[in-house]
Design a protein that fits this description.
Number of domains: 2
Structural class: alpha/beta
Shape: globular
Distance between the termini: 37 Å
Number of helices: 12
CATH class of the largest domain: Alpha Beta
CATH architecture of the largest domain: Alpha-Beta Barrel
Number of strands: 12
Radius of gyration: 22 Å
Strand order of the largest sheet: 1-2-3-4-5-6-8
Mean pLDDT: 90
CATH superfamily of the largest domain: Aldolase class I
Helix content: 25-40%
Amino acid sequence: MKSPFIIPVFIPNMGCPHQCIFCDQSVITNTESNRITPKKIEETVDNWLLYRKDNNVETQLSFYGGNFLGLAENLLLSLLNKAEGLVSAKKIDSIRFSTRPDTVTPEILKFLKKYSVKTIEIGAQSMDDEVLKHSGRGHNAADSIEAGSLIKNNNFELGLQMMTGLPKDTKEKSLHTAKKIAELKPDFVRIYPCIVLKGSPLETLLKKGLYKPQTLQESVDVVKPAYLMFKEKNIRVIRMGLQASEELKPDSKMAAGPYHPAYGHLVLSAVYFDIASDIIKEKRFNNKEINIVINPRDISIVLGIKKENIIKLKNRFDLKGISIIQDNSIDRWKPVVRERGEE
């Protein structure tokens, strides 16, 4: 299935009843203004359409960065009507947005069916009520479960977002969150590690010694099994980690936390390292020279950043050498490991 061509319109913090402890959407979306108009929407769509390479792929106008269903009624109607006009003009095919779980009701979903809304993303973040409370979310896990069920039952495409490393979170709680999200059978998920932004309430806790962010390795060790859980259930993980941005580089607006510009790549490489390790261990290839035969599309995650996986495999199993051989006949994620010289 082809991924849609998404045209993002950011509404940072708009519609939010309060600020979550970790949040500063103007940084995350790299958007300073929180004002959006129908004219600005059309200009955004026209600019993005210049970069659409495949005219046959679905084009979605997406409202991100705020609480869409929490917008004032007149603004919500204005944005929806403008988007629907763009559908009628055949500039876009459908509408998607992200919103808080406690804004989803049977009545609002019935109303949305008047428009070309296809996809609704819910910021669940955690399925642990203690974590939600200490993160200032203002809703509980039951709200996310109810919202997800309503969206699915009303035949909208459901996306769910989770965040790891929040205050009072643990690896066990994060995996519980992943399990509860998987039970809702979403069409896709996003996994974000918690980043401390300068000026956020979380930075205040950090400075007081009341919050300790995950290290990058700790974060990957949590997200990896969550990713595998979704993969096993055939649930697409469309993003892991915040999108790379100048604003999120160290010494900019990021105070602390497990940020990496290629975070998703780190997780996938860690998964592949475990796959290769299990095979080498099972075949007792310690102290040998080996060939790892892979699908060419897996090459970057097999090697890891700066060939980290190769270095770690050599060290773990005291291998004398590793050669990576690319073969189109090999299935993705199913490497064949042989002792060098073995037919």
